[in-house]
Amino acid sequence: MKTLLFTLILASATAFAADPPEIPYDADATFLKLPDSMNFGEVSGVAVNSKKHVFVFQRANTTGPAFGAAASQLLEFDQTGKFVREIGKNLYAWAYAHDVRVDKDDNIWAIDKGSDMIVKFNPAGKVVMVFGRKKEASDEAEPWTRVTPPRPAVDGQFRQPTDVTWDAQGNTYISDGYINSRVAKYDKNGDWVKTWGQPGNKPGEFNIPHGIAADNSGNIYVADRQNKRIQVFDTDGKYLREIRIDVPAPKGAQPWMATVAPGLEPAPNHTPGSPWTVCITPGPTQYLYTSDSFPGRIYKFTLDGKLVGMLGKAGRQQGQFGWIHQIACPSENELYVAEVVNWRVQKLTLKPVK
């Protein structure tokens, strides 16, 4: 059965008011059709353009050693889920796929955590702009190593970037990511403007800014994963507010990897309320979707931070989730979720409680 319907019946109006409602949904894990000779690898990114074509950025087609192999592949599917093409095959920037985005002009942006690069393709799949630069494969060049405290951030240089977004004026914002813990801003021509943020847990600081998105008003939302919050800024980097997922895991919930041993807490990025993703719907009334890896749910918020509802849990079955790494939300009730450890993209059709 290709599509499963998940339906929740609320017991009472009191329960509905006290707890965020569960949103019923259909899940289709077979919507995207690969050629018979291909399989998905770790799917880290998913995006949708104006024609409803779906773009998948995955860790597959690897070359190199078993560990530390180059692992990035960008694929396009049409609105019916049929495979169209591979974009940027054997691209110099491909190392370790992270996220993919499509801007208002249907340009495709790939964020590669391994090469420290962000690449902009036009709709035809040709490279038109490059940000960052990977370490040279010459002399005794080696990948960046982690040191404590981290090396100072350098303008125009990235270390494990994660995501990209844009404002109405065409300015570009890059979340720079696992090491530098900041947001970098470029103008519409690709010229450096400024940066804000540094490692830390105070307002305006970050501990792995893992996703970034903008609303119609130009506010910038950053999924500050290890600090368990989504921070909101204006286009100049002024801190405005934060959104938190303040919902405990249900009793008996299991993480995707294994049960949690008594007295042993999950890793910080696998605790309830650690946002891995941020996606904002289009239209005059916008909503924000985010997700965590444990208990593996998707959360729907208004832009002012009110939790509207939630859905799903960790698992391997259709309609369950294995580390949602990116969400594409072309409309309020249509989502595409990229799952790292389940090696797939699921198309979700939400059926909100009225």
Characterise this structure.
The chain is mainly β. The protein has one domain: 6 Propeller (Neuraminidase). The protein contains 1 helix and 25 strands. The strands form 6 sheets. A 5-stranded antiparallel beta sheet has the order 1-2-25-24-23, with no helix packed on it. A 4-stranded antiparallel beta sheet has the order 3-4-5-6, with no helix packed on it. The chain has a 4-stranded antiparallel beta sheet with strand order 7-8-9-10, with no helix packed on it. A hairpin with a 5-residue loop joins strand 15 and strand 16. The longest helix has 6 residues. The chain is globular, with a radius of gyration of 19 Å. The N terminus is likely disordered.
CATH class: Mainly Beta
pLDDT < 50 stretches: 1-17
- Report on the biggest sheet: 5 strands, antiparallel
State the end-to-end CA separation. Answer: 27 Å
Give the full name of the CATH homologous superfamily: TolB, C-terminal domain
Would you report the number of β strands? 25
| Succession of helices and strands | EHEEEEEEEEEEEEEEEEEEEEEEEE
Percent range for β-strand residues: 35-45%
How many distinct domains?
Answer: 1
CATH third-tier fold name: Neuraminidase
- Which range best describes the helical content: under 10%, 10-25%, 25-40%, 40-55%, 55-70% or over 70%? under 10%
CATH architecture: 6 Propeller
Number of helices: 1
What coarse outline follows from CA principal-axis ratios? globular
Radius of gyration: 19 Å
Secondary-structure-based class equals mainly beta
Strand order of the largest sheet: 1-2-25-24-23
**Mean of residue pLDDT values:** 92
